[in-house]
Write a structure and sequence with these properties.
Structural class: alpha+beta
Strand content: 25-35%
Order of helices and strands: EEEEEEEHHEEEHHH
Distance between the termini: 50 Å
Radius of gyration: 22 Å
Largest sheet: 6 strands, antiparallel
Low-confidence stretches: 276-282
Number of strands: 10
Number of helices: 5
Helix content: 25-40%
Mean pLDDT: 86
Oligomer: single chain
Shape: globular
Number of domains: 2
């Protein structure tokens, strides 16, 4: 399958921010699918568009592979969607061995396939791509479900992407089914769709973004950390100063420092932003 991949710049989109190179153990990485376009031949029956993603990366608990699926629903012959779908993160970026696989496909709609898609979508939402501890138990069943969908549906693969980059840069990327494109001529609208006047708009494409952050503001939602934090908050509200409170705080510190969803430097900063018994919230 022929496809082209282009890193987009300021000439393509006005919302480009300053580019950074992802630094191991310094950045959280987040990857989002911003827009997709599906092209399919007219047929008697309705066709379903489907987007699947697999991200593989090292973590503090070993190598992690996160497969996810997202239904695009029933399609028109040329259909553009803007899912703003997070396929990873924010999670700690530990090395350049970050692999991203994306696939865009269509298949005929049927009661059986529609039901299978509904189950995979529900599992993908439950697993999420935000917390490693949450996603790991779902990885095997999700991969099995996606494999079965591909086997049963006999889909038409419109676009397939498999990237491993040593030094990932933040910004926006375009994967296009066009045989060749001139990056200087590509223009995207505010929802990251290629403008209709561009020749590349006649082909299937995926626009995705890579983002870097040094601080994780949603750390309170990390599953194990959330439970420990709730315990010390409860003790603070009760104005309790007991051995149990001390133990709750120690458990909180341990959870934060050992969490695979937090960078070590950020974990230390989170602890420092709190008094020993949770008396001051960040």
């Amino acid at each position: 399958m022929n496809f082209t991949i282009t890193r987009l710049g300021r000439q393509n989109l006005n919302e480009i921010t300053e580019t950074q190179v992802l630094e191991p153990n310094k950045h959280y990485v987040r990857i989002r699918v911003r827009a997709v376009q599906v092209t399919c031949k007219r047929s008697r029956g309705k066709r379903i568009g489907y987007l699947y993603a697999t991200v593989s990366l090292p973590s503090r608990v070993g190598s992690v592979k996160i497969p996810l699926g997202l239904s695009l629903g029933r399609l028109n012959p040329v259909d553009t969607r803007t899912p703003n779908w997070t396929i990873l993160g924010p999670v700690p970026y530990l090395s350049g061995n970050l692999r991203v696989q994306l696939g865009l496909m269509t298949f005929p709609s049927s009661a059986v396939l529609d039901a299978l898609v509904t189950v995979i979508d529900a599992m993908s939402r439950e697993a999420g791509a935000t917390f490693i501890d949450n996603a790991k138990p779902f990885a095997g069943p999700l991969q099995l479900g996606i494999d079965q969908l591909v086997y049963v549906a006999d889909p038409t693969l419109l676009l397939g992407l498999d990237m491993t980059i040593e030094a990932w840069q933040t910004g926006y990327y375009l994967a296009s089914g066009a045989p060749s494109i001139d990056p200087a001529l590509i223009r995207l609208d505010r929802e990251f769709r290629i403008l209709p006047s561009d020749p590349a708009s006649d082909h299937p494409y995926i626009v995705f973004s890579v983002e870097a952050h040094r601080r994780r503001d949603d750390w309170r939602l990390v599953p194990a950390v959330s439970q420990s934090y709730a315990s010390i908050r409860a003790a603070f509200l009760e104005r309790a100063r007991t051995e149990a409170t001390e133990n709750a705080y120690k458990a909180f510190v341990r959870c934060v420092l050992e969490s695979p969803d937090l960078l070590p430097e950020d974990a230390v900063a989170i602890i420092r932003r709190h008094h020993k018994n949770g008396e001051r919230a960040a």
